[in-house]
Amino acid sequence: MTAVLPDLAHEVRRALGTVVDPELDEPVTDLGFVRSVAVDGGAVEVHLRLPTSFCAPNFAWLMVSDAHDAVAAVPGVQRVVVELDDHHDSDLINAGLAAGLGYRGTFGSEAEDSLDELRATFTRKAHTAAMERALTALLRADPSADVREVTLGDLPDDAAAALRRRRSAVGLPVDDGAPVLVRDDGTRPGPDDAAMVLRRARSVRISVDGNAHFCRGLLTTRYPGSEADQVPRPDDRPVLPLEVLP
Amino acid sequence: MYTKDGEQYYVVDAHIALWDARPENQRNVHGKQFIDCFYDYHRNLSPESEVWDYEEYLYQGGERLMRDVFADGIVDHAIFQPARLAEFYHRGFGQTEEAFALAQAHPDKLTYNHYWDPRDGENGLDALRAAAERMHLQGVKLYTADWHGESRGWKLTDPMAYRYLELCRELGIRNIHIHKGPTIRPLDRDAFDVADVDHVATDFTDLTFVVEHCGLPRLEDFCWIATQEPNVVAGLAVAIPFIHTRPRYFAQIMGELVYWLGEDRILFSSDYALWTPKWLVERFVDFQIPEDLTEYAPLTTEVKKKVLGLNAARLYGLDVPEHLRLPEADETQTGPREPAAADLAAV
């Protein structure tokens, strides 16, 4: 029986690894946002932390409630408490989550419908950024490449895998023959707007990657030692690594 | 005036503050959380030699501000952009009277911008009228994420905000500085979204909308709006200190801004007392976009002169010595400014 307990903690952490910061397109476990996981029999208590007190409360809610759902789904878990620490809305969010009030029940008049559109916006941005990374890497290797003609099958394996994951999330085809460069609505740009589609995608990628680096840095400033809980930003983003001074 | 390698730069710091975040002014825990958040920004992005103690970060006062901002005579003029934050601080965060008195004592060096909030209703309109007369306002700073009673944010497209913008137009307040923050009702959508700037920029073409922090963390949304609206300008507050810890990221921010907005619509700002302007100006003058980022043209001395001061001087009618002035670039009003430099996208 005692051997089961560490396994459950491991499974809980694995479940938390499926919870993604929608803005930064990375698991909360890699970002160091998981402050603690405590397992006592079938009862689990998880604490999350964010880079500032004023991180957007809607994103905070998405991560905290996703974490709750993910942990609750782990076999063997009987009771789950997930709490967000040190945020300006910690009391509100933690109470709402504990009472199972949901997004609208928690935020009352500040919530209108749901956070589905917000989530969809950032799932799309995550795809756009991945698309730009793949194409820019290709263009750096071969500046004469015609980006309109590039298909998933033309990409190196790691770039293709990263892009396929994000294409699945937005419902785009993932076969080798699928064109990589697409507009926000999934259609293929024409010769006239292909350059602009790629340029816009570049600003999205710079935003996502820049925010990720800044948020990671701020977390370690706010919580000394938390860098030990961070996993370096994955290698599927090798284009233009941001030089960061120690 | 800053001189380096025989080049002279007229420098305008377009975003400074005289704040008071000392415990006796903190109204609740959010007052502490807010200044702590600033202090973490400061510690995270500053070179070690420029990091202040927490205590001195809480309040600087006018005398120290004059020393810090105008150190070594580098900055020629600075503009106050105050945040009210009345729900977090008893006497507000930005110290209106202290800053205004300082600007009156040094009119050649300082301009005081004030703020308004559409949730102040009709009374606020009267107050803005009175402030404009007393302070000779040329600009205002708007913080859409400010809390106000039960409300935790507002949009530029709110009907009452339009009344205030119309009054700005009437009073000759031409420069509208906007800072996007994270909480706004409804929480359903992205609160950093700058779509409301698009609407007001279209409806008030005679006003200039300076988006502070160049829309960060939504650089991409900002660039897309700004490229279509000739009266939208990028403020570099919070973006420019990345020049130290993340120079390649800063290079990409600059590259994007010059590409989408052009060299005439980017303003240097230290965001004092978040950071001090001296090291930022020195670094910026020495800065260059790395050669391997071939999608961006190098930053010329002319571009740097415009960003560091000439662009803000134009917006505020500051008297730049004749020999330091530069003509505006002959660029398109809308759309990308130098598409030819973006060779990687030339498909």
Automatic annotation (TrEMBL), chain A:
MIP18 family-like domain boundaries: 11-80
Top-level division of the source organism's lineage: Bacteria
InterPro entries registered for this protein in UniProt: Fe-S_Maturation_MIP18 (IPR052339), FSCA_dom_sf (IPR034904), MIP18-like (IPR002744)
Region feature Disordered, mapped onto this chain: 224-246
PANTHER family xref list: FE-S PROTEIN MATURATION AUXILIARY FACTOR YITW
UniProt name for this protein: Metal-sulfur cluster biosynthetic enzyme
Biological source species: Geodermatophilus aquaeductus
Automatic annotation (TrEMBL), chain B:
Record GO terms (molecular function): hydrolase activity
InterPro entries with a match to the protein in the record: Amidohydro-rel, Metal_Hydrolase
Domain of life from the UniProt record: Bacteria
Ranges for region Disordered: 327-347
Domain Amidohydrolase-related: 12-318
Record Pfam families: Amidohydro_2
Annotated protein name in UniProt: Amidohydrolase-related domain-containing protein
